[in-house]
């Protein structure tokens, strides 16, 4: 005969997945995480290896909490980036590998890929299967921009440079994705001096250089405490040292009529556009807003007449 200890009540039922997601959401919200429910679900998805629909079905059915879930929630409450915990960062049509030592790509940077691809598509000599645009990504970081352009424009020849050895290692993994098809030439080096063999022969230069002034600290703990300083901070009080270096490299690399697109801080759009308009190397300077309506990218065209062979019959 079994005997229950005196005063002992019934055992507490184990917490199921639905209850765990609700409790995790509350903890993440208290920690200031901007999207607590989505993050809780993404952490559970990562551990279960399932999609969102399946996860929510499991939560309704009272499935058990996956092992390691609360460890990941604890890390996220300390504002460790979600992408560092899952090791993945969606970017356009790709899922990139990311982690400590590399800047986590943001959705607003996808605009640079759109601008480059739309410009290529509008050029009679570059669009379609007959065209072979040459594209350079200055300061590629995780390789997000270079890999996306190569994946979405299979005829492009893409070249990317990164200064950080850690970021370069992550970029190596991402440009090796099957969707990219081995069409990215990745080098370890400085965007100021990269690819001298391509001087005057490039159709498109894109760049998301470090642009935060040295004295400023990002508001989000995920960026301030976990993104590498080399990817965040540019020289000078205005943070324009590396953006201006990217402009100089673009002017060197682009052929006459070539296209340049660069991401920057919202307060830098006006000064950068003014400098481009005052520079005799550039024409057709334009500003482009992000999803929040903030000026996030500037484009320009390398001044000069295209070579005769590019004009066609």
UniProtKB/TrEMBL annotation:
- Binding-site list for substrate: 208-211
Q: Which reaction does it catalyse?
A: L-glutaminyl-[peptide chain release factor] + S-adenosyl-L-methionine = N(5)-methyl-L-glutaminyl-[peptide chain release factor] + S-adenosyl-L-homocysteine + H(+)
Q: Which residues bind S-adenosyl-L-methionine?
A: 139-143, 162, 208
Entry GO MF terms? peptide chain release factor N(5)-glutamine methyltransferase activity
Where would I find the Release factor glutamine methyltransferase N-terminal domain in this sequence?
20-87
Biological process (GO) annotations held by this record are: methylation
Q: Name one Pfam family in it.
A: MTS
What Enzyme Commission number does this protein have? 2.1.1.297
Q: What enzyme class is recorded for this protein?
A: transferase
List, for all copies, the residue spans of the domain called Methyltransferase small: 134-211
- Write the record's keywords in alphabetical order, separated by commas: Methyltransferase, S-adenosyl-L-methionine, Transferase
Presence of the UniProt keyword Nucleotide-binding in the record:
no
Source organism's superkingdom?
Bacteria
Q: Which family does it belong to?
A: Belongs to the protein N5-glutamine methyltransferase family. PrmC subfamily.
Q: Describe the function of this protein.
A: Methylates the class 1 translation termination release factors RF1/PrfA and RF2/PrfB on the glutamine residue of the universally conserved GGQ motif.
**Protein name in UniProt:** Release factor glutamine methyltransferase
- Please give the organism: Sinomonas terricola
Organism classification, top ranks? Bacteria, Bacillati, Actinomycetota, Actinomycetes, Micrococcales
């Amino acid at each position: 005969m079994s005997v229950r200890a005196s005063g002992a009540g019934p055992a507490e039922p184990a917490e199921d997945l639905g209850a765990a997601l609700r409790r995790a959401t509350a903890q993440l919200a208290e920690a200031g995480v901007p999207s607590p429910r989505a993050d809780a679900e993404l952490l559970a998805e990562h551990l279960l290896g399932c999609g969102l629909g399946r996860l929510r079905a499991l939560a309704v059915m009272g499935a058990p909490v996956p092992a390691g879930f609360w460890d990941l929630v604890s890390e996220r409450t300390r504002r460790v980036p979600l992408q560092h915990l899952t090791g993945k960062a969606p970017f356009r049509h790709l899922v990139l590998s990311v982690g400590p030592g590399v800047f986590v790509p943001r959705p607003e940077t996808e605009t640079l890929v759109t601008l480059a691809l739309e410009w290529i598509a509008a050029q009679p000599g570059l669009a379609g299967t007959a065209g072979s645009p040459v594209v350079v990504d200055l300061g590629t970081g995780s390789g997000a921009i270079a890999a996306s352009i190569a994946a979405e424009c299979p005829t492009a020849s893409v070249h990317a440079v990164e200064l950080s050895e850690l970021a370069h290692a992550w970029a190596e993994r991402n440009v090796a994705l099957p969707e990219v098809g081995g069409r990215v030439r990745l080098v370890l080096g400085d965007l100021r001096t990269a690819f001298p063999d391509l001087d005057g022969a490039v159709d498109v230069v894109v760049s998301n250089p470090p642009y935060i002034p040295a004295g400023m600290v990002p508001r989000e703990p995920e960026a301030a405490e976990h993104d590498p300083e080399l990817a965040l901070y540019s020289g000078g009080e205005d943070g324009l040292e590396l953006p201006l270096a990217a402009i100089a490299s673009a002017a060197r690399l682009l052929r006459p009529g070539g296209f340049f697109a660069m991401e920057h801080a919202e307060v830098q759009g006006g000064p950068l556009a003014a400098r481009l308009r005052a520079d005799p190397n550039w024409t057709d300077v334009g500003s482009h807003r992000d999803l929040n309506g903030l000026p996030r990218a500037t484009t320009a065209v390398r001044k000069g007449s295209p070579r005769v062979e590019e004009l066609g019959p």
